[in-house]
Amino acid sequence: MWLVEFYAPWCGHCKKLAPEWASAATTLKGKVKLGAVDATQFQDLAGRYGVRGYPTIKYFPAGAKLDAEEYDGGRTAGDIVAWAEAKLEEFAEPPEIRELLNEEVFAEECREKSICLISILPDILDTGAEGRNKYLNTLKELGDKYKKRKWGWAWSFAGEQDKLEAAIEVGGAGYPAIVALNIKKNAVLHHRGGFSKDSINEFLQYVIAGRIAPSVLRKDVPKLRKATPWDGKDGQMPEEEDYSDLDDIDLDEVPVENAHSEL
């Protein structure tokens, strides 16, 4: 991502911008590149991007060869930095919806962040891979929408992390379930609606606005046990024990130890 200033050496506004531009470049180093082009020396380049006055700042998204957008922010270093960082967040990758496989995942997504969204999905035997992926895709879409919030996003399934479920009081009303957890404040907010994108989105709006009274955790959140990651496949019913060979046993020939009768 580039921000490029087109300037003219004689331009007073350009001279005023110069120290602010340099300061912003230092602050954004390693994240956003800032450049400057003398439009009087590179008139063809300036003309290609529609430069008609000075200074003109153009924004070039990451990966773009020729496309440029107009910069519409302020002219102080703080304004330039804020505008560039907002653009970075806008095009940032959405957060990963991580399976709660161990304490390390939980610590990174929940203990180290202000809020984490924990979803407990039904057992794979109840939904199949298609049903589970539908739930996960809903969470991915919402994670992308709220990525600027820097929330943690994690999931498990019914009974896999039972002690965690007990601590956040999930499971009594069935699955799937989702909560907003704030470990540092020892508080949890429960979503009481359905597991649709619209319903969860409404819940998250209430979380942001503080329109839901949180519940105080009545149990300490335990360290998570190690779990086996989902392989992305449908579940398989456990094989039943085969007792058919019992039909061949003559019970009259089975010795009975210590048997006795009393009159």
- Could you tell me the radius of gyration in angstroms? 30 Å
Low-confidence stretches: 259-263
Put simply, the count of helices is 7
Q: Report the β-strand fraction as a percent range.
A: 15-25%
Q: Please, what is the oligomeric state?
A: single chain
H and E order:
EHEHEEHEHEHEHEEHE
Brief summary:
The chain has helices spanning 12-27, 43-48, 77-90, 103-111, 124-145, 162-168, 197-209; strands spanning 2-7, 33-38, 56-60, 69-70, 98-99, 116-121, 152-157, 177-182, 187-190, 215-216. It has 263 residues and is α/β, with parallel strands linked by helices.
Structure description:
- The chain has 263 residues and is an alpha/beta fold.
- Helix content is 33%, strand content 17%.
- The chain contains 7 helices and 10 strands.
- It is elongated.
- The termini are far apart.
How does the SSE layout of this entry go?
Elements: E1 2-7, H1 12-27, E2 33-38, H2 43-48, E3 56-60, E4 69-70, H3 77-90, E5 98-99, H4 103-111, E6 116-121, H5 124-145, E7 152-157, H6 162-168, E8 177-182, E9 187-190, H7 197-209, E10 215-216
Parallel strand pairs: 1-2, 5-7, 6-7
Antiparallel strand pairs: 1-3, 3-4, 6-8, 8-9, 9-10
Helix pairs in contact: 1-3
List keywords for this structure.
263 residues; alpha/beta; six-stranded mixed β-sheet; four-stranded mixed β-sheet; 7 helices; 10 strands; 33% helix; 17% strand; elongated
